[in-house]
């Protein structure tokens, strides 16, 4: 895969890893808040190997994409970025979004702001669990003064993802941080994103917007949940099934909110099998 730059809304430049034949069915991978395009692990490469045209995007303010000069990290801004990328494609894409990327994909598809081939929501439903959402925000707001080295980064990740073994090789975490002039490592996202994330119960208007968007989804849809997730409960799953009666559901045992990273093989098998039926 190669790194490509797209123009997002408002003139921001978005970084993406792109691979596969542009004439094949396009798949856009949208990571969660505080993550980067690398969070998909092998999923992007496996989808390319399976014959799809894959765009694994860094959301605005994340990874190698531009930070918003005015701090615009509204859902409309994220949706606008996605629509800009989709406008460059010759055919409608399948949208695969985790958490924030899932909310972006759901709104774009459900509100008719773009034409999608299919929708895969990864640990994201309109009826989210308040405590789980708050924990994400707490993690993103922690360590505002950065880290001395990768060992401290690994310690912070292990505290947040306590069910996952601490990696013996922590070099992979270097892609999630950036070295600043003070010699310390900082997360690879704009701190403005985290200022209000999960600080309180998601606004009623936002949840209503997700609910209304879900009720309008007519394309093939799938929900992949981490069985250990503290963001998507059984009630949340049933609520989504009510809103999208045709939605398929996969529960990945042993995985938490970051499903793709927790059990890459199970996640890839589920998503590849679903997308293969679209061709």
In short:
The chain has 10 helices and 10 strands. The chain has helices spanning 43-49, 75-86, 100-110, 130-141, 150-160, 191-194, 204-215, 234-243, 259-262, 264-276, and strands at 2-7, 13-19, 26-30, 53-57, 94-98, 118-122, 177-179, 185-187, 221-226, 248-252. The chain is globular, with a radius of gyration of 17 Å.
Main attributes of the structure:
single chain; 279 residues; alpha/beta; Rossmann fold; 2 domains; two-stranded antiparallel sheet; 10 strands
How large, in whole angstroms, is the Cα Rg? 17 Å
Name the average pLDDT: 89
Beta fraction: 15-25%
Tell me how many strands there are.
Answer: 10
Shape call: globular
The number of distinct helices, counting runs of at least 4 residues, comes to 10
Uncertain runs are none
Instruction: Report the end-to-end length measured between terminal Cα atoms.
Output: 22 Å
Strand order of the largest sheet: 1-2-4-3-5-6-9-10
In CATH's first tier, which class of the largest domain applies?
A: Alpha Beta
CATH architectural designation of the largest domain: 3-Layer(aba) Sandwich
Largest sheet: 8 strands, mixed
Instruction: Decide which structural class fits the backbone.
Output: alpha/beta
Percent helix, as a range, is 25-40%
SSE order, one letter for each helix or strand: EEEHEHEHEHHEEHHEHEHH
């Amino acid at each position: 895969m190669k790194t490509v730059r797209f123009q997002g809304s408002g003139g921001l430049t978005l970084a993406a890893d792109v691979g596969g034949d542009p004439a094949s069915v396009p798949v856009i991978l949208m990571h969660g808040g505080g993550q980067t395009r690398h969070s998909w692990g092998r999923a992007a490469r496996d989808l390319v190997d399976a014959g799809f045209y894959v765009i694994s995007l860094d959301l605005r303010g994340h990874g190698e994409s531009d930070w918003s000069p005015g701090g615009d990290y509204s859902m409309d801004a994220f949706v606008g970025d996605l629509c800009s990328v989709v406008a460059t494609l010759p055919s409608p894409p399948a949208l695969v979004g985790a958490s924030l990327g899932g909310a972006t994909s759901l709104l774009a598809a459900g509100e008719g702001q773009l034409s999608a081939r299919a929708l895969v929501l990864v640990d994201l439903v309109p009826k989210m669990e308040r405590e789980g959402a708050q924990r994400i925000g707490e993690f993103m707001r922690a360590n505002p003064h950065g880290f001395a080295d990768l060992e401290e980064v690994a310690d912070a990740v292990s505290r947040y993802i306590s069910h996952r073994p601490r990696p013996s090789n922590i070099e992979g975490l270097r892609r999630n941080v950036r070295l600043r002039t003070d010699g310390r490592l900082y997360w690879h996202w704009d701190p403005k994103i985290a200022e209000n994330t999960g600080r309180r119960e998601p606004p009623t208007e936002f949840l209503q917007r997700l609910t209304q968007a879900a009720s309008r989804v007519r394309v093939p849809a799938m929900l992949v949940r981490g069985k250990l997730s503290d963001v998507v409960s059984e009630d949340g799953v049933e609520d989504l099934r009510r809103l999208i009666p045709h939605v398929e559901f996969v529960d990945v045992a042993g995985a938490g909110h970051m499903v793709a990273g927790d059990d890459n093989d199970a996640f890839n098998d589920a998503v590849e099998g679903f997308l293969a039926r679209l061709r």
